[in-house]
Amino acid sequence: MSSILGVRALLFDVFGSVVDWRTSIARDLSQWGHDKGIGIDWEAFARAWRRQYQPKMQEVRSGKRGFTLLDDLHREALETLLPEFGLSHLSEAEKSHINQVWHRLDAWPDSIAGLWRLKSKFIIAPLSNGNVALLSNMAKHAGLPWDLNLSTQWFNAYKPQPQTYLGCARVLGLKPEQVMMCASHNDDLNAARQCGLKTAFWPRPTEYGIEQTIDFEAEQAWDIVAKDIRDLAQQLLDR
């Protein structure tokens, strides 16, 4: 219990932890594709698109290229996917609509209620690699009740670079130990812990569908291990 005393702000990983990107993209684009007469495996498309997420950001983290917004990295990855799925013929407007699907992701069933409960006591914000416009539109679409958007864009970096975690604590006027990183990804929490932040984990065992191989359970003794965000709220507010 004593390990989390003094925590004043909760930072949330978003993709996979708070919103369900895989089924959201598949559902959204399946309906769009149906209206357009495009019948591909949109879930496979979503998973293939997501596989390019880390490699694209690593180009920035490594210094190979300057900081580039996630929206633009998503679009670059999309351009490579379209031929693989027989979609080279799409118009610019259609490509833009597909790329914006990341702005239209839906929350996991427990996310909204859990966040509202936590908001009653803590500052809550995303610490996401999503850019500000993406996170703002997603919050409006999904009903995510953030107090503010703490995108890594503000720091021209991508998690797990230390300046993202430490930069958020600085922006909030808090010491690292007064901030808790909350995520379904052990590697994110490990990086946050190395920066002095508190940590909270809950599993999302269906995030990647059939391709999921990690993050089924806590891999370290995080400060809190919860079942989901509702349970996280229960544990934090009952202390």
TrEMBL record:
The record's annotation in CDD domains points to: HAD_L2-DEX
Under Pfam families, the record lists:
Hydrolase
Among SUPFAM superfamilies, the record links this protein to: HAD-like
- Presence of the UniProt keyword Transport in the record: no
For this UniProt record, the keywords arranged alphabetically read as follows: Hydrolase
Q: Where is the signal peptide?
A: none
Q: Which NCBIfam families match?
A: HAD-SF-IA-v2, HAD_type_II
Q: Which PANTHER family match?
A: HALOACID DEHALOGENASE, TYPE II (AFU_ORTHOLOGUE AFUA_2G07750)-RELATED, HYDROLASE, HALOACID DELAHOGENASE-RELATED
What is the name listed in the Swiss-Prot or TrEMBL entry for this protein?
Haloacid dehalogenase type II
What species does this protein belong to? Orrella daihaiensis
List the lineage, top down: Bacteria, Pseudomonadati, Pseudomonadota, Betaproteobacteria, Burkholderiales
